[in-house]
Amino acid sequence: xxxxxxxxxxxxxxxxxxxxxxxxxxxxxxxxxxxxxxxxxxxxxxxxxxxxxxxxxxxxxxxxxxxxxxxxxxxxxxxxxxxxxxxxxxxxxxxxxxxxxxxxxxxxxxxxxxxxxxxxxxxxxxxxxxxxxxxxxxxxxxxxxxxxxxxxxxxxxxxxxxxxxxxxxxxxxxxxxxxxxxxxxxxxxxxxxxxxxxxxxxxxxxxxxxxxxxxxxxxxxxxxxxxxxxxxxxxxxxxxxxxxxxxxxxxxxxxxxxxxxxxxxxxxxxxxxxxxxxxxxxxxxx
Length: 286
Known about the structure:
Blueprint: E1 12-14, H1 21-33, E2 38-40, H2 45-48, H3 50-60, E3 69-74, E4 76-77, E5 90-91, H4 95-109, E6 116-119, H5 128-140, E7 147-150, H6 154-161, E8 168-174, H7 187-193, E9 197-201, H8 213-226, H9 230-239, E10 245-249, H10 254-262, H11 270-281
Parallel strand pairs: 1-2, 1-10, 2-3, 3-6, 6-7, 7-8, 8-9, 9-10
Antiparallel strand pairs: 4-5
């Protein structure tokens, strides 16, 4: 992920849709079996329930904890029934909330450490001094080992990094062949400058682009060339980029988890990489 760590699996299991204990147990096993050891959480997933569901499995099988890396996020407060004090959806990146959120996550997981903590969204009221103090205290106590951000622009990343004594090791972004603006807006350049990996959420574009039959047929021709599914080809397109991308699966299907893991075996030709970009953008590069 970064020269100073952490060591993550190149494919990451996203748990936002793991909404019951059975799904968690099945998907944890499937992920670990195919070499996916990193699990991406957020405090708000499942309206504040999924960390605890995942944690039940860890409490039942404590040996699993040392076989995996836990990522979680904080900074969003949802307006939901189980949080009546939240009158409106809003952001909170205050020192007090970051500390409280981590303590709650540690309790939910039944663990003594979070491998990577992310600020979930850029907060217009973010005070970098407070964030720096929270990160420093959590690191000194061994409660969080690494820190990063999510959905930050290049300048937002640079600003926060300038206040921190430790590196931001990642910026988690919506990245896919279909959502490719990170290549052209400076974000990937800044991540490479800082040697920070990019965690790519929605790497298949949430499936919403699959209805474009003409484009999917063109991608299918390339998939046939490599004897892989279109989904695996889309993962391979991301993995071919030098910005150190870590795609996050969002599935609850074990066969899809296995498919994502096997994308590491696909070596994509450079011209085919550009051909895929042309299919989506509709024109050649300049």
